[in-house]
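Chapter review: from sequence to fold.
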Amino acid sequence: MSATLDADLLLNATDQSSRYHRAAIRLMHALAAGPEELYLFWPVAVAYARLATDAGVFERPLTAEQVKANLASLIERPHVRAIGEEQSFWEAFSESAGDVFLKGDFVAHGYLVALMRQHGVTTLWSHDPGFREFPGIVVKNPYRPALQAT
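The token string follows.
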């Protein structure tokens, strides 16, 4: 089984003041330990960098160096794949757009789902219920007790 994660999980693992911090950091350690492949899609990494350095999001935002170090520590693991679009991305995105009317947040959601489909990733760790609108992926809430699928 291959899985990926939403930027929310990275942000909560970083933000020690978050009520989800403990659950997020626990799951990040489990995912980082492997052995299953974990996909980090570039739009998620970029969203994390954008939000973690924003004073409107974090009381004490991270520096660019801290963000780079955090992402590098994940990407450098042998079972983590940091990837983006392939040649057939537009077809995968169009397919996602056919499943859910893409507007607002659903544009970014469809983008991630299209990348998942393009790379055969079936599981997404995310607290965002909007991802459940897309058929064919399993959304697991990282903040539920015992990390149960939702």
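Two observations follow directly from the output. The chain has one domain: 3-147. Confidence is low (pLDDT under 50) at residues 146-150.
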